[in-house]
Amino acid sequence: MAIVTRRFHYHEKGNHDETWHALARDTETGEVFVQKEWAHRENVGDCRAELAAFLASNDSTARTNLLKLIGSLVPDNG
Q1: Does the structure show a pLDDT above 80 at 5?
Q2: From CA 3, how far away is CA 35, in angstroms rounded?
Q3: Running DSSP on this structure, what letter comes out for residue 30?
Q4: What local confidence, expressed as pLDDT, does residue 62 receive?
Q5: 15 pLDDT higher than 70
Q6: Tens digits of per-residue pLDDT, 57-74?
Q7: Relative to the CA of 64, which of 8, 16, 57, 72 has its CA 20 to 30 Å away?
Q8: Contact of 50 with 25, CB cutoff 8 Å
Q9: Domain residue spans of the chain
Q10: What is the pTM of this model?
Q11: Do 67 and 23 meet the contact criterion of CB atoms below 8 Å apart?
Q12: Under a CB-based contact definition with an 8 Å cutoff, are residues 38 and 50 in contact?
């Protein structure tokens, strides 16, 4: 299984506290999802969220950045 990603959000609070979000696709199944990774001092991890659930979850900067990425796929001249 190969996962290809495109990062759309990075947040650093300092003191080894970072979070990344990427739009991801499984090349074998075609599944599209949001991959979240974090590194908070000794706590490092990742998780995935269904695209619809991520977009419905909240009005965060990460969500806004994902909507901008999706919008950039459509040309202005239609």
Answers
A1: yes
A2: 10
A3: -
A4: 96
A5: yes
A6: 888 999 999 999 999 999
A7: 16
A8: no
A9: 3-71
A10: 0.84
A11: no
A12: no
Query: Are the CB atoms for 21 and 51 separated by under 8 Å?
Result: no
Q: Name the residue with tokens 């990742």.
A: 46
Task: Check: CB of residue 18 under 8 Å from CB of residue 10.
Answer: yes
**Which residues have CB under 8 Å from 33's CB, separation 6+?**
24, 25, 26, 48, 49, 50, 51, 54
d(CA 6, CA 25): 9
Check whether 31 has a pLDDT greater than 90: yes
Give Cβ neighbours of residue 69 (< 8 Å, ≥ 6 apart): 6, 8, 23
| Closest C-alpha to 23, from 76, 77, 67 | 67
